[in-house]
Write a structure and sequence with these properties.
Layout: H1 2-10, H2 14-20, E1 34-37, E2 43-46, H3 48-54, H4 56-63, E3 72-73, E4 76-80, H5 85-93, H6 106-118, H7 122-135, H8 143-154, H9 158-167, H10 175-178, H11 189-211, H12 241-256, H13 265-283, H14 287-312
Parallel strand pairs: 1-4
Antiparallel strand pairs: 1-2, 3-4
Helix pairs in contact: 3-4, 5-6, 6-7, 6-8, 8-9, 11-12, 11-14, 13-14
């Protein structure tokens, strides 16, 4: 069902697919002994032996007695599969010593990985992942990240599911934002992602609270603020007030709704630099810019490492 929706929205119809995507002659093997038929009725004449060597699924299938009324085309038995021709075309090119075909769409690559997993083609699945990495396909962003997660989840792609689940944290999770992607969320996929997001939010809240805790704060580099016109300090505590306000603001936002994007190291760094600049402009402080110049990178690496570790420890399922 996922594949049908995906190709209905992003790909051509079965009839136009044959015209837009000519099938390589290599896949119509003159000496093939089996017909693989896609759900849109495209036939691939291939070899049982090649399928059996690549897939325990097909090896077991061919070892069983075949029904006497099995469909035959040109004298060859037909095996109907639920994938469309575009997917089977890509998959079969990887079974033969010919140039393999990898989709340029990340979503369709997930569908191809799902097919290879369905037919127990572990070696082919590794090749697909390696080819995708080599081609450096751009990862989905925005609402498309949720669609990709749903496809990976439904397909049982645990590696991609983990990666995509964490990518979704950078975007809001509301009905308005996900409206067009909701048809891809089958079964308990949405519930599981919501629970993961809540667990992450709880851990990030604890993380930011620890930043404000004198006993656990790693930020002992900060000194009380000093205006340029005076040698007197006007702030005390482990953090200057502008930085405390920044962390407190994030805590307030996290408490309001788990559907909001979670803080990440990129936007936190931007907010930190903006808050520091605003502080310097308004108070003419000389202490904070000096601390930042000497230890700013080290300070923010502590922020990044703690946030990254916190979220990475949350299990996706």
């Amino acid at each position: 069902m996922i594949l049908g929706r995906l190709q209905a929205e992003t790909g051509p119809s079965p009839t136009s697919l044959q015209k837009a995507l000519p099938l390589p002659d290599h896949l119509d093997m003159a000496d093939g002994d089996i017909i693989i038929q896609s759900c849109d009725f495209i036939n691939f004449r291939v070899h049982k032996l090649v399928l059996s060597l690549s897939s325990p699924f097909f090896r077991d299938m061919f070892s069983l007695p075949q029904p006497s009324n099995q469909e035959v085309v040109n004298g060859l038995p037909v095996v109907r599969l639920s994938e469309q021709a575009e997917v089977l075309n890509c998959l079969l090119t990887m079974l033969y010593p010919i140039p393999s075909m990898i989709p340029n769409s990340y979503d369709k690559t997930l569908v191809l990985l799902t097919a290879s997993q369905k037919y127990d083609m572990d070696g082919i699945q590794s090749r697909i992942r390696a080819d995708v990495q080599g081609k450096k396909l751009p990862m989905p962003t925005g609402a498309a990240t949720f669609r990709a997660y749903a496809i990976a989840n439904t397909g049982g792609l645990s590696l991609e599911k983990k990666t995509l689940a964490r990518l979704t944290l950078d975007f809001p999770m509301t009905f308005e934002y996900l409206c067009d992607e909701l048809p891809f969320f089958e079964g308990l996929v949405a519930r599981d992602l919501i629970r993961f997001r809540r667990r992450c939010r709880a851990k990030v809240v604890s993380c930011f609270k620890s930043f404000l805790n004198l006993r656990s704060s790693p930020f002992d580099i900060w000194t009380p603020c000093t205006p340029s016109s005076s040698h007197m300090s006007y702030a005390t505590g482990p953090l200057p007030s502008w930085l405390t306000d920044l962390f407190q603001k994030r805590l307030t936002e996290l408490d309001q709704a788990f559907t909001n994007p979670l803080p990440n190291t990129s936007n936190i760094r931007e907010e930190y630099l903006s808050a520091l600049q605003a502080h310097i402009t308004s108070t003419k402080c000389v202490a904070c810019p000096r601390v930042h110049a000497m230890n700013g990178d080290t300070f923010f690496k502590k922020i990044e490492n703690r946030l990254t570790r916190t979220i990475s420890k949350v299990k996706v399922w």
